[in-house]
């Protein structure tokens, strides 16, 4: 028997990369308007502060949970008008990626998928609190991921974040 060329087919030992979104859900949600109802009678001159964070956790086998946390604090003058926070999560099936690609997928690609859901949830909370709609600007998670890698390299940390 002669050896046949592979012709680009993937052998059984080598798995084709796979990515599949399994579920998107709200993991945690909070809204606080400490100065209501008095805040509604004031002139509305808001200043918005946004804090975002991501974390990843390997579940079983090739399943990963990625959680994107958005925390928004809006002040009207010096007073806090409201604080809204959402932990938007997703379960992803990811397999066949090298360490660098896996790190990028979990650190940038998955948060890019979750962000529109988190943004809509924050907007809905704010409107239900009787405040003007709050449409957060898009976030470039690829740029944030690259900045974090650079920061880690400069500080001597391992450049590929580990999955918990």
Structure overview:
One of its GO terms (molecular function) is unfolded protein binding. With 164 residues, the protein is an alpha+beta fold. The protein has one domain: SecB-like (Bacterial Protein-export protein SecB, Roll), CATH 3.10.420.10. It has two helices and four strands. A four-stranded antiparallel beta sheet has the order 1-4-3-2. A hairpin with a 4-residue loop joins strand 2 and strand 3. Helix 1 packs across helix 2. The mean pLDDT is 89.
Largest sheet: 4 strands, antiparallel
Low-pLDDT windows of residues: none
- Averaged pLDDT: 89
**Which structural category fits the helices and strands?**
alpha+beta
Query: Total domains, how many?
Result: 1
The coarse silhouette is elongated
Main location: cytoplasm
Protein name: Protein-export protein SecB
Keywords: Chaperone, Cytoplasm, Protein transport, Translocation, Transport
Family: Belongs to the SecB family.
């Amino acid at each position: 028997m002669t050896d046949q060329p592979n012709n680009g087919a993937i052998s059984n030992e080598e798995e084709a990369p796979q990515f599949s979104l399994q579920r998107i859900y709200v993991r945690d949600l909070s809204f606080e308007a400490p100065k209501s109802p008095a805040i509604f009678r004031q002139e509305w001159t808001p200043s918005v502060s946004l804090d975002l964070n991501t974390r990843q956790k390997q579940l079983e086998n090739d399943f990963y949970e990625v959680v994107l946390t958005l925390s928004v604090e809006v002040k009207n003058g010096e007073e806090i008008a409201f604080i809204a926070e959402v932990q938007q999560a997703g379960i992803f099936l990811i397999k066949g990626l090298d360490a660098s690609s896996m790190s990028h997928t979990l650190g940038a690609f998955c948060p890019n998928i979750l962000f529109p859901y988190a943004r809509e949830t924050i907007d809905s909370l704010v409107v239900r609190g009787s405040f003007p709609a709050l449409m957060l600007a898009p976030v470039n998670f690829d740029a944030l991921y690259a900045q974090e890698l650079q920061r880690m390299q400069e500080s001597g940390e391992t450049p590929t974040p580990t999955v918990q």
